[in-house]
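Input sequence (437 aa), recorded before submission:
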Amino acid sequence: MIVRSFDELTDTDRHVKTPNWQSKRIVLAKEDVGFSLHETVIDPGTVNDFWYANHIEAVVCVEGEGELLDKETGETHQISPGTMYLLDKHEHHQLRPTTRMRTICVFNPPVTGQEVHDENGVYPLIVGDARNGASTSGSAAQTLPSAMPDPYPTRTSSPRLIERIHPTVWPGRTGPISPDDLASHARKGFHLIPGLLDDEELQLYRDELGRLSTDPRVKADERTIVEKTSQEVRSIFEVHKISDRIGELVKDPRVLGRAQQILGSEVYVHQSRINYMPGFTGAGFYWHSDFETWHAEDGMPAPRAVSISIALTVNYPFNGGLMVMPGSQQTYACCVGQTPEDNYRESLRQQDIGTPDHDTLRAMAHEYGIEQFTGPAGSALIFDCNVMHGSGNNITPFPRSNIFIVFNSVENVLTTPYAAPAPRPPFIANRDFTAIG
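Predicted structure, token format:
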């Protein structure tokens, strides 16, 4: 049992003071109970912008009055003693007290006490060892508090649909994406980029694709995955390290800038690969969420990663093109089963563990519908890591190939796997969290 008075925290390291407000952190992550509890006193006449992109906050006013503005809708609410507001959708909001206001606040995930609001009023997500109070952010983070409930459980005995608690588009960065495309991405979980590569660039990358697929050293490398039946090359992983040309593409502002803008931070490459789907024999990939696998088998804490698929061939509706459920990034599909040891050896060719059951897919398809990525070579699709997607077999004469790059936020680095006996190899799940320079 912990018994603690608010007064005893005055002027300790749990007492945070700013020009507009001060807060006493009554319960922190180190208490290892899955939430944090705060008393916050806000000065009258101040304007306070907050945007908890990484946390859910509930606030109860116990003294004073003021106005709460939802900056996303323009709606205002009068706050007085006995009023509660819950930021269940990570709303960007503004609090304007007319008298001295005292509130009691609860955060999930719990605050560690080391967070500082950025220019948007956002607390970073800091993870660490709750028992000893150590915590880290960015590239040094390695473990989650043991008592913090996993908001995205999977590989369990029964399926579940779980509402996502993290945003699709994170605040903090500008970039090449137009406001309309960014709003569409936030709503649907993806957007199209017509003409990302011109004809000259396309030819260079096609030549590189041909060189890699015929190089016997590359085919013999463990980073190369072959089709289960035909033994043709299916994917080459860590291709940004194998190919200097694709390594440069990762740094291209047209690509990198979009990832930084969506994720609201510096980023690193979590995974890269070239995908080949040959004519007649190209095998599809069953419906899945990438984040489910990256969470379960790689230890990715939150869905703060984004993938870009750049078409090197025409994507017809009939040659195994990618199908996506628009808006499905808002729902996390918990999958059944246990992860076998070295599951990646089979799952990269044919995924069985980590795929939703038929009832789950039926429910999600009826709610969100299905769209397909089609278009000319050189176009691209950039999509959220939790979008439900899949592709059918290619039984046409027309091959389909693409460059696939996954960017993860440096504030969302991998920990220990949540539902696997050991992490996958680094060529599949990179553990060098250095931001792309």
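Checked by second reader. The chain has two domains: 7-149, 161-409.
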